[in-house]
Amino acid sequence: MKGILVSLLLLVSAASIASQPLPLEYFIKHGDYLDLKLSPDGKHIAARMQHDGRVFLVLLNTADMKVVGGVRPESKDIIHTVNWLNNERVVFEYAEKQSYLDSPVPTGELFAINIDGSQKEMLYGYRASDERTGTRLSNRENNLASQEIISYLEDDDDHILIAEYPWTKDGTLYYDTRERPPTISRLNIYSGKKRRIDVIPHGSSRVLATKKGEINFMTWRDEQGEFHSAYRKNNDAPWKPLTEAFEIAKGHYPLGLSEDNKSLFLSGRVGKEEVYTLFTLDLETGEYARAFPEHDTDIEEYILDSNGMPAVGITFPGKSAFVYAHNKSKISKIHSMLAEAFKGQTVDIASATKDWKTLLVRVSSDVNPGEYYLFDSETMGADFIWANSSWIDPTQLTAMQPVAIPTDDGETLHGYLTMPRALKKGSKPPLVVIIHGGPHQSGTRDFWAYDAETQLIASRGYAVLRVNFRGSNGYGKRFERLGYREWGGAMIKDINDSVKWVINQGNVDGDKVCAYGASYGGYAALMAVVRKPDLYQCTIGYVGVYDLEYMYSESDIPNNWGGQAYLQRVLGTDKQQLVDFSPIHHVDKIKAKVMLIHGSKDRRVPEINAESLAEKLEDSGKAPEYLQYSQAGHGVFDEGDRQEMYQGLLDFLNTNLQ
Hints:
Layout lengths: L1 H18 L4 H5 L4 E6 L5 E8 L2 E8 L5 E5 L6 E7 L4 E8 L8 E2 L3 E5 L6 E4 L20 E7 L7 E8 L1 E3 L2 E3 L7 E6 L5 E6 L5 E5 L5 E7 L5 E5 L8 E2 H4 L7 E5 L5 E8 L4 E8 L5 E3 L8 E6 L5 E6 L5 E4 L5 H12 L4 E7 L5 E8 L2 E9 L4 E7 L12 E7 L5 E7 L12 E5 L16 H8 L3 E6 L8 H5 L8 H15 L8 E6 L1 H12 L6 E5 L6 H5 L9 H8 L4 H6 L12 E7 L8 H12 L5 E5 L9 H19 L1
Parallel strand pairs: 33-34, 33-35, 35-36, 36-37, 37-38
Antiparallel strand pairs: 1-2, 2-3, 3-4, 5-6, 6-7, 6-8, 8-9, 10-11, 11-14, 12-13, 14-15, 16-17, 17-18, 18-19, 20-21, 21-22, 22-23, 24-25, 25-26, 27-28, 28-29, 29-30, 31-32, 32-34
């Protein structure tokens, strides 16, 4: 009898715990293992591990996952990137904590260290000559530039090839704008000594280098935002446009070379929708073809085969979907098997050994922040090694359901609806529409993937809608262009019509609706309540632009390479339209309660946006709740500030929707 009572008490206790929402800090903490990479021989793993707001480099023994080395940054600096140079040595970059900003800033510096901790050196950077090598003289020079590794030079154990991107000075500060032509240099991975090899003729450019250091392809963006590509036979030959060198379509750009340097793969767009996909080019025969069969939405990620050519494309028509290269490889077959084994999740091959025997596989989904497995391609066995955001129990998360919403002009909007787990019988939850930022850049769309904000808000009893309105990336260039010069017009109509569509489905409370977004999403959250004042009870603008004229006069975008042309293309210069599309000029129409969140060090959307709107709202007797973060830029990074911010957001929702 006593055992039965204990069992019942345990069941009641477990049910009680399950009914409690996960703590706020679970959602605002940065993930623990940010990425993992296998050494060429597979004996070690290099990981960027986050703890207490800092990111460390941890080197692990693959056999038992014990820590065998690593780097602990000073103060609140973080390890920004890490890569293997060989089986014994890694190269890494810092992002440095500045006194004026809460988020660390990449410095462009390059460091290297052996697994056993020996021969730690700053190889490259603006402080390289300050790092002594045991003598009074430094054999390295300071570089007011950022670097990018473009070749690991397979026949040279001591050097790598880098592209150096000179910084641009603005006042007393330097910025990595990539405006000036890069220099190509050979860099010693032990001493940091370098030798200039070449200078690329265009700014805002990137190059492809072979394993032997030949640079045959480059792509650059001009000041009008247009991309161009060129080819040369060898380092001494003149450059010629890619379309003249090969019989390929205009608008296709080199992305990578095969391991044997006989093939090239490129990006391009196809069909009426101009969907983003990949192409392959045989450099010996000139044969040019699409890498993948037909797919309806853009390729967002791709996995390469052992020869460095596309094997798998990952796309998101709703949930994640996979397309396999026409030229079937062992990797595509392995991935197909893994996708079946982890059905209903996104499967990516994050890293592989040099012989491709061992693969590091990442599995994720809407309710899975990411798990890592070591996969043996010979035995076909997989061993679990780590779960990212390991404090989160996926069974406590809520599924994102793909939705397709018709518009009155014949378009289809794709998005995701997340319903809360616990609902009282017969009740309907309030609705929060989270509006993504961007809005037109690569990757600025909503995905079927773990999203901390969505899960946090859903865990507090709200339904969450995320919709890819026209102008969003990911659905082809035609769909994206529909949003140009429609920031406050058709794009906002899509958002509001989507909210009404969800309400009309009968599963949410249409009298309790709030809009929330960051950056463009913050702007849209305010414009949505301007256009449909009676649809919303509240709105939250996070680092949003509220006067579109400020995009030209206050933002850093016009000063960036191609920035002025970009704004003219997507916003236009019609002053009357800019006024009509700016929330600050329509305060009289706003009925919803307003919360504004902004960082004082935001260069993309300066704080004058929030300050000016707050002042106008106050003058109209509609004073907003205003959370200001003096050290934050375009988004709040500090975990303590994030805790305060999201608690304030939840309190605001509770006050206005419950």
